[in-house]
TrEMBL record:
<keyword id="KW-0732">Signal</keyword>
<protein>
    <submittedName>
        <fullName>Predicted protein</fullName>
    </submittedName>
</protein>
<feature type="signal peptide">
    <location>
        <begin position="1"/>
        <end position="24"/>
    </location>
</feature>
Length: 218
């Protein structure tokens, strides 16, 4: 049973490489070019920053700002370095498989937060950080950011280490900071993005999803 769980978690990582296009999973292709997007954390923090380290004296928030840095709450100021040795091309998968993979990630996020954080205030702040990091990816998909549409392969590779062999969560350090995210970016190719038509179609897709959400909340 534990082996199946780890396999499911490993499979879920593929969704990070497919979202930029249709629902797909990565396969290796020919050698890809190397390129860089410069880091955006080199300058001093903004005078308008908010620190959450030790917020209201809550011990579990000690050092919170150290992970992503001041004025980089959701990691959106991280730069990218595309270092792929092989090009990754998307291959269409059934939407149900993608939904299953994403639900696994969602429920694991709930488990991580509820089993390892006891203060509801810290739970709320950490969830907001996680949520906004994912939400910011939507801007990448719509080509509304200056980031490439991809994922950090080094960070994503830690997924299978989240759970120990006995089924418990791995509480050890994974050896990276939030500022490291983007240093090993893979950019899958094969997206159907078209500069002329996709901005409108992506907006229509967002509106359709919002309409479905609104109908759910009635």
């Amino acid at each position: 049973m534990q082996g199946k769980l780890l396999n499911l978690l490993a499979v879920a990582i593929s969704v990070l490489s497919i979202l930029p296009s249709s629902f797909c999973s990565p396969v290796a292709s020919e050698r890809a070019p190397l390129w860089n997007l410069s880091k955006r954390l080199d300058g001093p923090p903004s005078n308008n920053f908010v620190s959450l380290s030790n917020w209201r004296g809550i011990p579990s928030l000690q050092g919170f700002d150290d992970f992503n840095g001041i004025s980089n709450f959701d990691g959106s100021k991280n730069g990218q370095v595309v270092v792929q040795e092989k090009q990754v091309v998307c291959k269409t998968q059934r939407v149900e498989i993608i939904q299953q993979q994403l639900v696994i990630l969602r429920e694991m996020a709930k488990r991580i937060i509820t089993e390892q954080i006891c203060e509801v205030e810290t739970q709320t702040i950490v969830l907001s950080q996680f949520h906004n990091g994912v939400k910011d990816f939507k801007k990448d998909l719509a080509r509304k950011s200056n980031r490439a549409v991809g994922y950090d392969a080094n960070i994503a590779s830690h997924l299978i280490r989240l759970v120990n062999s006995d089924g418990s969560l791995n509480s050890g350090s994974f050896g990276f900071q939030g500022t490291d995210v983007g240093n090993a970016t893979i950019v899958p190719t094969g997206s159907n993005w078209n500069n002329a038509t996709s901005p409108e179609s992506v907006q229509a897709a967002e509106q359709a999803a919002q309409a479905a959400l609104n109908a759910t909340k009635v």
